[in-house]
């Protein structure tokens, strides 16, 4: 399946530090999306990276994609308490169905 | 981007009853999806809501339990029928933003508690 698996399951850092989360998947993909979920609310779309892209930036976010290793990483720089949330990756194929892993729970301590 | 609203935002229901959740998008979209997130778990796709035809259900989900309507390109409903406490979850709709993009946006979710 295209299910993404995030690692680590939980990450606790201090405000101002960088946070890196990883995602692995098993099949070929067209793209990979990252989402944030705050405490049981809806998912907020962060960034989409296409299979022919290696790196993408959006504000304090940096996403990399290595299709040869079937992995992606999300880097949040200069983290803030408001970044505290669960982060999910969603590898996407031609059928547009998204399969989610358990996510990474990021806690940013003030 | 697409702005998605869901109603209700939360509800507490008695077992054996049914609840219909509405999903409204601010623009016409071709593809809409319904997901479930059980407590402490990740999201699981329930079905793809097809405009003008029956929804396409994923393994483990059936139409009798989760009937879906999609009368037009901006609106869909999901009904959770004959509810049991195991149906307590957050239900989310999502949309593929449109032609030329694979980005999917999610609604704010409906938090359902079944007693």
Characterization of the model:
The complex is a heterodimer of chains A (110) and B (115). Chain A has 110 residues and is mostly beta strands. Chain A has no helices and 10 strands. Chain A has a 5-stranded antiparallel β-sheet, with no helix packed on it. In chain A, strands 2-10-9-4-5 form a 5-stranded mixed β-sheet, with no helix packed on it. The radius of gyration of chain A is 13 Å and the shape is globular. In chain A, 35% of the residues are buried. The termini of chain B are far apart. The mean pLDDT of chain B is 93. The A-B interface holds A 30-31, 33, 35, 40-45, 48, 88, 90, 92, 96-103 and B 1, 4, 6, 31, 33, 41-45, 48, 58, 90, 92, 94, 96, 101-109, 111.
**N-C termini distance of chain A:** 38 Å
Mean pLDDT of chain A: 93
Identify the most extensive interface between protein chains: A-B, 22 and 26 residues
Query: How many individual helices of chain B?
Result: 0
Provide mean pLDDT of chain B, rounded.
Answer: 93
How would you characterize the largest beta sheet of chain B?
A: 7 strands, mixed
Summary, kept brief:
The complex is a heterodimer of chains A (110) and B (115). Chain A is mainly beta. Chain A contains no helices and ten strands.
Kindly list the characteristics that best describe this protein.
heterodimer, A: 110 residues, mainly beta, 5-stranded mixed beta sheet, 10 strands, 0% helix, globular, B: 115 residues, 4-stranded antiparallel beta sheet
């Amino acid at each position: 399946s295209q299910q993404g698996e995030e690692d680590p399951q939980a990450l606790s850092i201090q405000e101002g530090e960088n946070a890196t989360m990883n995602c692995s998947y098993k099949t070929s993909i067209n793209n990979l999306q990252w989402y944030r979920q705050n405490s049981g609310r809806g998912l907020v779309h962060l960034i989409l990276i296409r299979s022919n892209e290696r790196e993408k930036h959006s504000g304090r976010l940096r996403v990399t994609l290595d299709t040869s290793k079937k992995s992606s990483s999300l880097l949040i720089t200069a983290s803030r308490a408001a970044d505290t949330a669960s982060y999910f990756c969603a590898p996407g194929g031609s059928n547009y169905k998204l399969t989610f892993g358990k996510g990474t729970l990021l806690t940013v301590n003030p | 981007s697409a702005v998605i609203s869901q109603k209700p935002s939360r509800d507490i229901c008695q077992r054996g009853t049914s609840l219909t959740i509405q999903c409204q998008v601010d623009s016409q979209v071709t593809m809409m999806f319904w997901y479930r997130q059980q407590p402490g778990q990740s999201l699981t796709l329930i079905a793809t809501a097809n405009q003008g035809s029956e929804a396409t259900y994923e393994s483990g989900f059936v139409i009798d339990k989760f009937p879906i309507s999609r009368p037009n390109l901006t609106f869909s409903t999901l009904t959770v029928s004959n509810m049991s406490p195991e149906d307590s979850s957050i239900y989310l709709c999502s949309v593929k933003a449109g032609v030329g993009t694979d980005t999917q946006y999610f609604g704010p979710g409906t938090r359902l508690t079944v007693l």
